[in-house]
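Quick one: structure tokens for this chain, please?
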Amino acid sequence: MRFIRLVSAASLVLPVLGFVVPREQDSLHISTENRDAFFSFNLRIGDDDHKHPKHPPKHPKDPKDPHPPPHPHPPHNDKPGDGDAGKTILEVISNDEAFSKLWSFVKERETLVKALNSSDADLTLFAPVDSAFWEHGGGHGKHRPPPPPEIITQGLLYHVVDHQHKEEDLKNGQLLDTGLTLGSLGDKPQKIRVFEHKHHVALNLRSHIIKDDIKASNGIIQAIDHILMPPPDLFHVTVRFPKIFGLLALAVKRAGLEEYLKETKTITLFAPTNWAFKKLGVKKLKYLFSHKGKEELKKILSYHVSTELVYGPEILEAKNKQLPTAEGHHLNVTVKDKDPEHGHKHQVIEINDQAHAFITDGIAANGVLHAIDHVLSVPKDEDGEGDDDDEEDVMEAVLEYLMDEEDDEGYDFAW
């Protein structure tokens, strides 16, 4: 299956986040410069006090040696100690060489120093080891100014979680509230999602715990191999995963809803996958992506956006929720028990008895995404007029789509 050319590469790299202090730095209104700075935060966070090493001097090339001299990298000690139950988290990281880069940034931020050094605290710190700050190629490519101090502070707060969480207690799908509070989430904390693999635990897919349960008197430290990046807005979450949500991202752009998914706060997106869109059939898709079908496409997509922020655990606990949508109608979200498979009873989340949410809690700067396996049908209005188009309307739109070169925009529907 060959998919479509979606969006420019530049739109893949614009994460948006926020921080409620100061208020004017709200997540969806940070300047472009700061957004770009934060995206490269994990590439360049060490620029302030650990300059990239210079390239070695050039030597005459030995014609028998096809390989140039290797590019040097800063030495790292990525083997943290076991901690000390008599010392605070702050004291442990300040005395462990594996966390020297992390410590260099924490010590400059009074709020973090007080929190991590408080004897009354009960925290988990997901602590990047030194190599995490260079893992993505620090020292290569174009040099840029270091991120603004408040952006680094936001990133560090995202690594602090209330209460102690031992590795054995972290379960697949678990959501952890962090120290990063966002106005775009209704002044609620941004979350970290746990992914449990056979032999290790991952956080937000990319960061892995490489040394677990490091002791401290006021909490616990989990050493990780990648910096945790606060997620972007909902639109850019879909763009980041084109093999899953490529058609959805394209549909959102065609319907003119891109800015809505970027800027609107506290929303839930029930996101149809590429396979869900494919189930509509080529004719219906071509109609929806035509000029004539644009308004219907917008209405359908708006029906997939709830104006209420709701995470998976809340749905499972409530068993049934009526959620308002941007389109105007409500979604009926229910939890149903399914027959045991392989001896294990399981629950599924259904939307309008039409679709299943088979992946929940894709976190975003302004809400959450739940992946669904069917495109939802918008309810008919009370006068009986719905959105079902007869074959004549569909074929007329298909002809319009095929004949209008400007409408095509280079997209290629090919299965």
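The longest helix spans residues 242-254.
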